[in-house]
Every structure is written in C-alpha cells, then in structure tokens.
Write a sequence for this structure.
C-alpha cells in the first residue's frame, strides 16, 4: 500500500450495472490507497462546499456518470464517498458480503440495517425507532448530519450498510422523502422483529432509478 494517489480508477465490476453500484466499486478501489482514503474521509459530515479534498475524485465521476448539477445528487455522492472512507479497519478488512439479494428492492436499506442492529442487540429498539421517525420529518441536510454517528454505531456492532442503496435514497430524499422513509420503516420493523425479508416489496419500476 502506498501513499500516492491512484493513476486511474478500477474498472467497474461487470455484474454491477447500476450507476450507484459502480460508484461504490470506484470508491472502494480509491480507498485502497492510504492518502486517498484520508482525503475522502475529511469530508465526513460536511457539506459539498467544505469537501475541498473530495472534488478531485467525485467531480470527474459526476461529469461522466450522473447529474452533477442537482445539489442533492452531488451531496449524496460526496457523503457516501466519505462514509466509505471512514470505515474502521475491521470493516475494511472484512470479507465482502456476497449474499446481497439480486433484485434491487430486496437489498437492505438503512431501516433494515437499523433493524439488524436491534435484532442483534447492538441498538435499543426505542432509540432506533426514534431515529427513524425523526429522519422521516427532516430534510436531507439534517439526515446527512446524523448519518456519520449512526453509521459508526452500526459498524461498531458489525452491521453492514449497503452503500449503493443509501446513495440513491439520499439523492432522492428531498424529492421522495415520504416514500423512502416509509420503506425504511417497513424494512426496520420486518427486520427488527425477525422476519427474513428485510425490505417490503415494491414494484421494479419504482425502484429502478
């Protein structure tokens, strides 16, 4: 492992054909370099305007892959890149989870991750529910501010986060908050109470964003 920035991003995994999955693969590759991981990590919890070290990595991606002019989309990309970079060593070194459902709407959202935390005793049910209900009333700015501590708590308890799902949910939060919040709550209660399916089925059309 070196401290120099990588010359080029890793090619996307052919099995990941969603833009969000390709971005996560891109950031995971960047984070193999100590210096780059540290630069991305500096953006944790910060608005785009204060993520001075993140621009060199995210701006070219947005230029080539997504809507760089929509503020919520850009904020979501910056936030997820920083959160991935901020993973503790134990999470970075863990074997990748190969058991994610193939269908997008079955993959775990943040509500499912919180439900897993409750089911495993990492989080108290009252606290997790309060967090979800609070988020359901907040703008994306407020949710972004609370994400770092929440994700850190999940990681400390060995609970994984599906970064691509989180990226898309945050990118659409201000435009579809009620639907996303409802999906998080559905997934939370299904998972926290021990049901095997962590996400309520939605139509492919609604989820194929």
């Amino acid at each position: 492992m070196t401290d120099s920035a990588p010359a080029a991003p890793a090619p996307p995994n052919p099995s990941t054909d969603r833009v969000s999955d390709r971005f996560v693969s891109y950031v995971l590759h960047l984070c193999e370099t100590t210096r780059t991981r540290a630069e991305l990590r500096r953006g944790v919890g910060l608005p785009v305007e204060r993520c001075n070290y993140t621009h060199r990595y995210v701006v070219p991606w947005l230029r080539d892959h997504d809507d760089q002019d929509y503020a919520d989309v850009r904020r979501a990309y910056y936030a997820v890149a920083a959160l991935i970079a901020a993973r503790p060593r134990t999470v970075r070194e863990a074997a990748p989870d190969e058991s994610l459902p193939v269908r997008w709407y079955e993959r775990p959202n943040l509500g499912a991750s919180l439900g897993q935390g409750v089911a495993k005793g990492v989080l108290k049910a009252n606290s997790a529910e309060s967090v979800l209900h609070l988020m359901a009333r907040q703008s994306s700015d407020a949710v972004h501010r609370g994400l770092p501590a929440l994700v850190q708590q999940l990681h400390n308890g060995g609970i994984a986060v599906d970064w691509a799902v989180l990226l898309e949910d945050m990118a659409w939060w201000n435009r579809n908050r009620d639907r996303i919040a409802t999906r998080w709550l559905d997934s939370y209660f299904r998972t926290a109470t021990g049901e095997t399916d962590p996400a309520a089925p939605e139509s492919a059309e609604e989820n194929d964003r």
User: Anything to note?
Assistant: DSSP finds ten helices and no strands in the chain.
